[in-house]
Amino acid sequence: MTVMHDVTRLSFAPMGPADVDEVYALECSVFPHPWSRGNFSDSLASGYDAWTARDETGALAGYYLLMYAVDEAHLLDVAVAAGRQRQGLGRHLLDRIGERAREQGMASILLEVRPSNERALDVYRRYGYREIGRRKAYYPAHGGQREDAIVMRIDL
Description:
Elements lengths: L10 E4 L5 H11 L6 H9 L3 E6 L5 E10 L2 E9 L8 H15 L4 E6 L4 H10 L2 E11 L5 E10 L1
């Protein structure tokens, strides 16, 4: 049985070094080619806008990392814990990401997503992101292969 959680009861806080191990564990649990622990540490050291979402028990439900360049935010990474997927949390995170980017004066948000990540593609498309291009052989894939990235953008 799936337990439904109220996304409005989540608490958001800036991601810090103490969160990296838990964020990395969540990343590894939901992505076949996860970021490294070092990617998260480096992102924090670079001052990227990184946030965690925790439920009322303090359990990590999701997170996101944004980088700002001129007037466009780049969504570097976003994830929802496996047990929390298909409950509206992804959409809620996208709402928060848009709010945060607008607060920083951004006019749009850019992201890359694997063509094989059909669930994320569906969420982004339904949310209003549109495909604006492809990056050939952008992501590592199984067996030493590479996978393209679909580049998507939403205007704020």
